[in-house]
């Protein structure tokens, strides 16, 4: 770890994550948080269309099938796409904690190549919380929930307020997202208070 880098392991004294009392029941499909999200949005033809479900405690399971548009090497998933799938799965933990947080650091191990047509079965878990820092880890396995491990990641997400998006995002997309008739999606994207 170089100077100024945050460790990816919760420090001693970090709090255990607490599942929000109104978090969706384990097994519930979460659905996209934003139609245009590259990770989960239905409006992105070449997106991952990743489908995430609430797990037990503060954990998520997710699936994504590698499409021809996701290739790096011929017939194989691009590493950045696999990192996106991990990022999206990890980011979905926020909905179980009911916080808004963005990825600060994401460290990925690429263990096995993932062919086009394979389905990546992902699992993410929150490991601890220290102030605004949310520590989480994820793993992705090929074709089965207990299939061979292809990717792993450790990450720190940083809790932010809604103004992170309104100050930094483009107004047209923010307005459109807020006007989404699917109020659950709007709540997932914009809920600030637990
Ligand atoms: C519009 C629709 C809304 C959608 C909502 C749903 C979103 C879902 C999206 C899903 C998509 C999937 C998800 C995505 O892809 S999210 C997209 C990718 N991520 C980003 O774009 C984030 C860009 N970075 C920033 O905006 C700022 O740097 C942030 C907000 C992260 C921190 O800037 P801020 O000024 O606020 O921070 P601070 O200086 O007060 O520090 C606070 C604490 O945090 C620690 N720290 C800081 N930075 C880092 C770091 N990089 N690594 C590790 N630790 C870091 C720092 O040491 C300090 O700790 P301590 O000293 O307290 O111990």
Automatic annotation (TrEMBL):
It is a peripheral membrane protein. The keyword Membrane applies. It is an enzyme of class 3 (hydrolase). SUPFAM superfamilies: Thioesterase/thiol ester dehydrase-isomerase. Residues 1-27 are annotated as: Disordered. CDD domains: PaaI_thioesterase. InterPro entries: HotDog_dom_sf, THEM4/THEM5_acyl-CoA_thioest, Thioestr_dom. Its EC number is 3.1.2.2. Keywords: Apoptosis, Cell membrane, Cell projection, Cytoplasm, Fatty acid metabolism, Hydrolase, Lipid metabolism, Membrane, Transit peptide. It is found in: Cell projection, Ruffle membrane; Cytoplasm; Membrane. It catalyses: (5Z,8Z,11Z,14Z)-eicosatetraenoyl-CoA + H2O = (5Z,8Z,11Z,14Z)-eicosatetraenoate + CoA + H(+); octanoyl-CoA + H2O = octanoate + CoA + H(+); dodecanoyl-CoA + H2O = dodecanoate + CoA + H(+); (9Z)-octadecenoyl-CoA + H2O = (9Z)-octadecenoate + CoA + H(+). The keyword Lipid metabolism applies. Residues 75-134 form the Thioesterase domain. Pfam families: 4HBT. Belongs to the THEM4/THEM5 thioesterase family. This is Acyl-coenzyme A thioesterase THEM4.
